[in-house]
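User: Hello, can you help with two protein structures?

Assistant: Certainly.
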Amino acid sequence: MRFHKWLVLAVALMLLVTLFAGCAETEQEPAGDPDLGEETTEPTGDSDAEELPTAALEQKLQGEGEGKGGSIRVEVTMVGDEITAIDVLEHEEDEDVGGPALEQIPKDIIAAQSTEVDVVTGATLTSNGIMEAVADAIGQ
């Protein structure tokens, strides 16, 4: 009987060690093994093609929307299909009420790459005006 208890205890201990070893964090190696001469980066495409500078692909588009205080005019900078910057050029919004939207909505649009973002509470008309102006600029 005494041997049976020790055997059960030893098996339980081995199971616990196996459990903790299986749950331990491991580092994942990048694809390919540098020691074997395999590349770990993706191919860049046709090596004969010339790459255009980013400035050549950059577009600056202007659009207009209607906020609470009147017209909101923006300049949207795009590289390809990506919105990279939004500058509010002109507005007649109250800084206390519309100011947070004028600051936050462009950041949200860039992050979402969409004009369909949440409005800033208390500045719904200003938020909608900025989204409308950006949509106008990019032709949505």
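That covers the first. Now for the second protein you mentioned:
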Amino acid sequence: MIYPVILSGGSGTRLWPLSRATYPKQFLPLTGDQSLLQQTVLRFTDRDLYAPATIVSNNDHRFLVAEQLRAADIENATIVLEPVARNTGPAAIIAALHVHGRNKDGIVALLPSDHAIADVGELHARMAVAREAAEDGYLVTFGMAATRPETGYGYIKQGGGLKGLEGAFEVASFVEKPLLKDAEAMLEAGGYAWNSGMFVFAAKTLIAEAETQEPEMLHACRDALEKAEHDLDFLRLSEAAMTACPSQSFDVAIMEKTERAAVVPAEIGWSDLGAWQSLWEIQDKDPSGNVVSGDVVALKSRNSYLRSTDTRTLAAVGLEDMTIVVTDDAVLAARSDMTPLVKDLVAEMTREDRKQAKEHPLVYRPWGSYQDIDQGPRFRVKRIIVKPGASLSLQRHIHRSEHWIIVSGVAKVTCGDKELILHENESTYIPVLAMHRLENPGKMDLHMIEVQVGSYVGEDDIERFEDTYGRA
């Protein structure tokens, strides 16, 4: 049995403005109705082949992960929380230690959460080959056929075949992201594949390699796991141990040093969705070569990626080889061949302290979500959605009062020593300093408009006294 461990810690800045630090690309439905994370986990639900998934996430995204698993009816998954980011090397070692604690002969599949795969059947076939190689003590990566001189990927030079393992080969060498001329030379020479970032290995093999190659990292990871605490449905790694852990990618820390590296070529319709142009390449196009998503009207436009939210109309005239992405609070306009530079654009916006660089206008919470509608010097208006059976914390505000108007659903409101039930078109008032709580006792989403008024209406004007989600 293979234990899928899915890494969900990326920020996905190349797909801004849809992907942002508070809601990165793995949580977005970019290639269908389900998010990339949901698609990734659902590829490995055959219990004859795979154990329930483990997702490694950062602390800020914990409720996003949990909610997306619930929404996709994914059960028995383990969510491991990294208190600080330490790259994929420590994540891989923690995955090996975690699986080894459950099954000393366990095979780990270490998988990014944000890749698109068209041929899932072929993926499972290649996984079976990789599992056999891993059982023989190899650390296996998957090589994707290089179809163009790509400078954004690392490369693998394929060596000789592994004895008795058809479809698996030694790794002759790893090549870092190359210059264009070097990428062109490798493509012409043949025998090179893109490094997909997906790996399969026996937990005990990786632990042994880490003992030799990265003993300090292994010690810190072991300490972080041994001192981990269960928090609701999460396994929270020790912050002190993770802070002390060296930060390094799995490729550099282990794969480029080991003598047990193997590669399985895989023709699975793979894309790492590293830029908007990648999405244009893999999605269906109209007769003019455009990929269109959302409320878009295009005239005399060719070979462009045009995407808008449901609340904004994108009207395009005479565009060619362009990428236009419209959200509620930002618009990206770029020449399609320049979209890999969006990450640099986001870095510049971050230096300017623009909130659009990191924050979405739609903010997700464990109980639901909220979205700003309007804001001024002494007021703020939000639309709030509370899931059935969910409740906000028992809290108070020092600087603001609140007016709540129920749009649909049922609200149970606690304010001071009073409780009341509100229905559609009813409202209530929460004074400054009043202890209060909002709950949804119904079976459908509660939609509410909240009007805040006061000398300060920032999100941090909140004191929590009781909280279902451990935030008090």
